[in-house]
Amino acid sequence: MVSTLAATxxxxxxxxxxxxxxxxxxxxRHFFESSNxxxxxxxxxxxxxxxxxxxxxxxxxxxxxxxxxxxxTFPDWHxxxxxxxxxxxxxxxxxxxxxxxxxxxxxxxxxxxxxxxAPTGKHFETDHIHWLKFRDGKIADHYATRDDISxxxxxxxxxxxxxxxxxx
Length: 168
Hints:
By secondary structure, the chain is of the alpha+beta class. The chain is 37% helix and 31% strand. The protein has helices at residues 2-36, 40-44, 59-73, 148-154, and strands at 47-53, 56-57, 78-87, 90-100, 123-135, 138-146. Strands 2-1-6-5-4-3 form a 6-stranded mixed beta sheet, with helices on both faces. A hairpin with a 2-residue loop joins β5 (123-135) and β6. It is globular. The chain starts with a helix and ends in a 14-residue tail after the last helix.
């Protein structure tokens, strides 16, 4: 009887973990789908009130400032989730991110390299990895690794890499 009860409790906990993981995946998808519509309110609804960005507490208003700047600088900002892995309270996504530089950045996002830079009108596509940590079905912390150098090269703001010489 005790072993049956223990097995039932273990199965219930495993099902709850699976349900939570699926819920977190769905919230992560919604967050980036909202991003593709420039729907800041939709994105903010997926965050905890005390959400962190790169471990720093910024709350929803801090995220609002960052998102406003991104969508002003790149009005056609688009995130394609290429691959997603979820475990426990974490969801990690490999993404293709693209946009056209049509606005002037005002705060240090995207590596801080676009503050005050006149729009180039050029399009970029680069890789991002986003790591989201969840609490009670909401994003509590966000980390990202981006290829900002590639983005800046595609925007024509830094020179392309020199081709390696091939001495004969």
